[in-house]
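Q: Sequence in, structure out?
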Amino acid sequence: MIAVYFISAFLIAMTMLIVRRLLLTRWLMLLFVLIQWFFNGYVLLHAGQTELSYFTYDPAGVLFLGLLTLISTAAVIQGFPYFVSQLNKRFSYYYAALTGLIAAMTGAYMANDITLVWILVEATTLTASVLIYSERTLHALEATWKYIFICSVGIALAYMGILFLSLSMKGTGLHDLSFAGLTSVAHRLDPIYLKIAFLFVLTGYSTKMELFPMHTVGIDANSVALPPVGALISTGLVNLGFLSIFRVYKALSDSPIFVWMNKVLILAGVLSVLVAAGYMLKAKHTKRMLAYSTLENMGLVAIAIGIGGIGYYAAFLLLVLHALTKSSLFFQVGQMGRVLGTYKLDDSGLYLKLFPTGAIALLIGMLAILAIPPSGLFVSEYLILKALVAGKSWFVLILVLILLCCVIYALSTRVLHLLFSHPRENAGIHTQGTVGRWETISQFIFLMVVVGACFYQPPFLKDIINQIIAGLPNY
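A: Exactly. Output:
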């Protein structure tokens, strides 16, 4: 079935590039969304099954595929208003690349081999770069080349990590680089090789997870890409980067370097939150502000994994709720940009007056991403702080609390300015475009789920997260 899925995605993308008719392209895009949902249902019904030897429908893949399917559906629909004329020839490249990006992420979620994950992650770089350049501006060109260059460097570093893993497995009798095989022999591998490998893997895939030290590429990409693309980059690709790191982390959890890996993750997480807080305090661009928020949340995820215990559950809950919230915010900021005609904070304001429905969604999204009750992210961040207390990591706890206060101040003051204040640079701003109220439906649905998670987390979600973290040591 996964072979049928990939072939269908390829044929649909090629048809878009060849035919170049806007109406037909939209229908083909909706057909691919339908195929995505069908494949998602198939994966749910065949959980645990392996196909083509290299793809396994494990709990982590099932969870992130479900999120990707949901968010990509909204992203496709939210992208329609940006291409309304047959004269805009960019639409065929945009939708073909979007199809390829979703398909590559889907395959990477399910891949059970370290090398195959690496190949599919590189495929996401190529397809995402086309989407980043869809506006064809000088800033978009600069961000695209930067994205390709830094992601390629990251992929090269990740490949070095794979080489060191293969060197460490020499003499074990294994002839593949599957995660299951690495898990079975991790306890008897050379710790030096494993430490070097994990550092390379963490640094390389942090380009996708938008985690320190390779976070800058995601910041620039999100600031110039169309908002629906930013939503996918900050959710689907971020989750892919995390999963690529987490699978290696889990495979090596029975090795002598387990405690050392946790310290590295905590350090990377704290530095990520620190950088995000610093830059958010001087952010002047709405989409860039959201990108730094992603860096902050991924820093918390890294800290949660590193501290262990209840932190494992908190990390995955945070990833799920962050994906729903951040995609909603990108969709809404995109609509705000169409209404105000700008993404610059100093040129924006009075959004509540110009588009009340969208302003309410933006306000709820702000409260949700800042983990202010009744946001479900409050539960995940509370559990992370609880894990830090249980681990007696007092310095990290105090530092994170201070930095989170900075993040709350920076993001809340900017969003409230967008909603209520007059523009600083252009006091006479008037609405530049119109947005249908129906376009906010997906945001309200996602945010309702996030709010509901503060009071009730469904058993199926708890079960799948517990299956993912099963076997990880608690210390």
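Residues 278-475 form one domain.
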